[in-house]
Design a protein that fits this description.
CATH class of the domain at 81-178: Mainly Beta
Largest sheet: 5 strands, mixed
CATH architecture of the domain at 81-178: Sandwich
Radius of gyration: 37 Å
Shape: elongated
Number of helices: 2
CATH superfamily of the domain at 81-178: Immunoglobulins
Number of strands: 9
CATH topology of the domain at 81-178: Immunoglobulin-like
Length: about 180
Amino acid sequence: MKEQNAINGKAQTKSKKRRRIILLFALLLLLAAGIILWWTVFRTPHEIYKDRNAEIGILPGMTKEQIQDRLNATVAEGMMNVSMNPNPVFENGSAQGDLRIENIEKNHYSYTVTITKDDNGEEIYKSGLLEPGYYINEAKLSKNLSAGEYPATARFLAYQNPDEAPIGAAVVKLNITVKN
């Protein structure tokens, strides 16, 4: 009987060792799967490194015309074209006038326009955001002006993204006329 118990004890010990090995192997598989999952989900998706063969400058063999075309394209991309009637006329202080503000379609930026009187800096008009290809033909001033002529300045603020700060500005000098 003692021999039987000794044999059963050895078998149980081997069985326990086998279970432990299987459990350890399963845990290692789970750990490896977890590492692979973490690597694919949480690592930086596109690690880009500078090419060691890249050189700074202009590609050899380009003609002066090709170089000038590239420079002109770069300048044009950063430019903002503004268009507005420099002499808007209003029938009276509460009427619409011919501001004729246009953000041409080729502009790369949206913009807002604020008009202030030159004598005291008072804001008399503020547009909403004008995207490229949009215009304001006529609009009312935010202040009711008496009959007369008013030197003013229109300030265009350019935005690449409306949620961000302006990236550039331009001004247009105006002479506003209110008839009555």
